[in-house]
Amino acid sequence: MISIGVLGYGTVGSGVVEVLNTNQDSINKRANEEINIKYVLDLRDFPGDPIQEKIVHDFDTILNDDDVKIIVEVMGGVEPAYTFVKSALLAGKSVCTSNKELVAKHGSELLQIAREQNINFLFEASVGGGIPIIRPLNSSLTADEIDEITGILNGTTNYILSKMTFEGLDFDTVLKDAQDKGFAERNPEADVEGYDACRKIAILSSLAFGNQVDYEDIYTEGITKITACDIKYAKSMGKAIKLLASSKRVGDSFYAMVAPFLISSEHPLYSVNNVFNGIFAHGNVLGDVMFYGSGAGKLPTASAVVADVVDAAKHMNRNIMQLWSNKKLELADIKTAKRKFFVRMSGDAKTRLEEIHKVFGDVQLVTVPELENEFGFITSILTEAQYQEKAEKCQGIINRIRIED
Amino acid sequence: MISIGVLGYGTVGSGVVEVLNTNQDSINKRANEEINIKYVLDLRDFPGDPIQEKIVHDFDTILNDDDVKIIVEVMGGVEPAYTFVKSALLAGKSVCTSNKELVAKHGSELLQIAREQNINFLFEASVGGGIPIIRPLNSSLTADEIDEITGILNGTTNYILSKMTFEGLDFDTVLKDAQDKGFAERNPEADVEGYDACRKIAILSSLAFGNQVDYEDIYTEGITKITACDIKYAKSMGKAIKLLASSKRVGDSFYAMVAPFLISSEHPLYSVNNVFNGIFAHGNVLGDVMFYGSGAGKLPTASAVVADVVDAAKHMNRNIMQLWSNKKLELADIKTAKRKFFVRMSGDAKTRLEEIHKVFGDVQLVTVPELENEFGFITSILTEAQYQEKAEKCQGIINRIRIED
């Protein structure tokens, strides 16, 4: 029997308890051990809940119990999670976490401690909820040099953009609906401004490229400026607008960014809609691969946490994760990143075409009949700096959205 | 240093050599060992090829060399692969294979021998080419009871159906084009009749459900009867026709089949086109998950084989695969499987509607303006037996295609 302690009895924590109860037999069989929840750490009490008898309020009770071999950390936030997780690892207990802030900030150090202790620090649930992506990167894509990871990593913003697309609604209306349905937080900033996706792509990039990618270094733009009109242009081009979190190796340079992109219907992420997440990767021998599923939610996230618990139980004295170095990966300045841009401009296309040509050279015009007194166009491939310079020469740019080919 | 022997220097075998050479440094780093190809077994010689100095014609040379710790079997076919692999495992050498026939037929026994020897029998490349699916089923989806696996598991047929869809061509024309391009074999039977997909779903089902699923027991129907007209109906319904290999748990019954299905645009497999494969799974706590990528091809398949070699090298004296029991899983009679059917019928819809209603009850009519003197309809949910019985009462059924919702 392996005893575990669960830190936090919130949404994911209660999901972990539920999953372990629901699939008890098959989980124990796969772990080759009986998994037993001995403690649940929470500041609150849960009178009437069967979990109450396992509730403790002091982390040291769990830390000092030698019976406890695996800690599940599902509190979220850097502190006190970091202090708890680090002391657990140093005490020789494996840790499974869903905490993206913790992994993005301290993943390198915690992986290193786990390696030294010959135990495990696992974090499948920190990116993509229930979608297996950390373990495939760690142990499936090992024959490849990964040169791109691009994901739809935030379910809330994907739900909002999908709903705007399918129902023609504007951002504010859909956000309110998402909040009412519990798909968006009352304070939606972390989602809609791209901060959540940014931490997740930092984790994936660090793992894929082997060096610490600091999320503070990643250029991040949210979806708050995307309007119902932008979506009309997207549809008329047969494209979709998605919040992509992307990192790419181009020669010896590494680029990472989070921003809304126009993607075509041939892109594997095009049909990832609603609250689903999708993660696309490209390997130099494997080619394209994509993983799709529920990127959040109580049970899918708990499923990933419990799969980590099974793996930790199967590898009690054997470290299985690749490390990434704490040496920082220097990201290239995104001003040098090259792509096409879609630009929306006020005025009449015919009247302004000469001016546009003068500044942008050859462009591809895009018009939506119902949108009067404005038009759109697609530029040739430009660096961000070149685009910026040209855009400053033009009056009346309403919006610009990057294009991912 | 770990020495390996590669059995077979065909497409995949030469791909394995290429991948190991191309990504040598990162592969050795991830394996924590230098991987060295010591022998390549082939009946042929390859004068001028750098591999020639490693070519041997006698398997015993490899078997009897204690230096060789890992065997890569990429010959295909049951014999002599089975004899070679079994004796390698019994001699304490781990085996990595891309051979679906071998795994479908003898997987249970070979996994058991590897378990007893405390080594590994790995077969990521046997299903879905470069797509990680065996390892995720083995070590990521371990918190779940899998109740469905449905895949587009054959790139040739998916290419044919995609091309028929996008270009409106008929089966024979596209097959010839696929053969000319090397996407289809000169003898295409194993692909177009569904036999290849059948072996692959047998492997996935055995692994997911824990008991041997014999591929001979799986009802299998190919795509040779799908016509350009069927595709026109599919388009008019907003659906796609895909060759699905599917196994499902319904209560205590297990169903498995390979057949062309109509799927709607909301299905995660809808946009898996051309030679790509996609594998959809549903877990009782995870919900939906889908894996997408190159299902065949020299380098993607070799990438999966080499990832297995890395895993075998990292687990030299530790067995990591779940077993499945050699006790056969009794599949339910597909006559009891329930679904809607799309039926194409000759004649005039209006004239025949009363007759159709009498036999099939409420149906949903589907017409394609350019197709005269015929019409289509979608039945209510029926068992295969019920459909069969009703269909026998009607004259002039041109085709029927199952619908996957």
Structure description:
Two copies of one chain form a homodimer. Chain A has three domains: 2-129 and 298-328, Rossmann fold, CATH 3.40.50; 140-294, Dihydrodipicolinate Reductase, domain 2; 334-404, Alpha-Beta Plaits. Chain A starts with a strand and ends with a strand. The radius of gyration of chain A is 23 Å and the shape is elongated. In chain A, strands 7, 9, 10, 11, 12, 13, 15, 16, 17, 18 and 19 form an eleven-stranded mixed beta sheet that branches. A six-stranded parallel beta sheet of chain A has the order 3-2-1-4-5-6, sandwiched between helices. Chain A has a two-stranded parallel sheet with strand order 8-14. The first copy, chain A, is α/β, with parallel strands linked by helices and 405 residues long. Chain A contains 14 helices and 19 strands. The model of chain A has no long low-confidence stretch (mean pLDDT 96). In chain A, strand 5 (94-97), helix 5 and strand 6 (121-122) form a beta-alpha-beta unit. The longest helix of chain A has 18 residues, at 100-117. In chain A, helix 4 packs parallel to helix 5 (100-117). Strand 13 of chain A pairs antiparallel with strand 13 of chain B, so a sheet runs across the interface. Chains A, B: It holds the Pfam family NAD_binding_3. Chains A, B: GO terms for molecular function: homoserine dehydrogenase activity; NADP binding. Chains A, B: This is Homoserine dehydrogenase.
